[in-house]
Amino acid sequence: MSDTELPVAGTAVILRDGATGPEVLLMRRPDRGSFASAWVFPGGKVEEGDRLPGATERDDAARAAVRESAEEVGLRIADPVPLSCWSPPAEVRPRIRTWFFLAHDPGGALAPSSGEVEEAVWMSPITALAAHAAGSLLLVPPTWVTLHALSVAADVDAVFAAAGEIEVRHTRLRRTEEGTMHYWEGDEEHDGGIVGARHRLVAEGLPWRYERS
């Protein structure tokens, strides 16, 4: 299946200001199914009710992100801002193209959906990355890279101010004896990359390392 034919999903990166900077809502999936035991942002596949005549794929994905946030954690977000779009590597199954959207915390108590969410917590990106590096919290590459970008922001306003051109990433994967290498547009190992250029995640043991030049 070509990238243009992939199923589509929408994910909400819900943010609030904490004592030391922005906090993001993360939830842990059950130990079965997609992303088993991983900590992810709320989200899921676009359903028929998310589609409107004449709407773009991105708009459909945004409606899915809004709906899934309400269903999975009980938060009714509004006006999601597109951040990135991820097409998974050919080796991954199932393959789903996923749009990530920034959203403000609408307030209210979290209500994790039984059977879909084991727990949901507000956490600073730095704390989440440190826990992953220590092996106590499981993240998948798109979540890790997004948290890495958020970790340098002073507050939520700064995150939204920095959101500009949507980052489109078609992932290329190479397995090594130590783990995996993930390459994106611009890297010398990606299609059309310039020799010596870097845009990759080095996931060969912990901690992971992001390189971009």
UniProtKB/TrEMBL annotation:
Name of this chain's protein: 8-oxo-dGTP pyrophosphatase MutT (NUDIX family)
Keyword Manganese in record: yes
Cofactor: Mg(2+); Mn(2+)
UniProt keyword terms in alphabetical order: Hydrolase, Magnesium, Manganese, Metal-binding
Source species: Microbacterium resistens
Domain of life: Bacteria
CDD domains: NUDIX_AcylCoAdiphos_Nudt19
Nudix hydrolase domain sequence ranges: 6-145
Pfam families: NUDIX
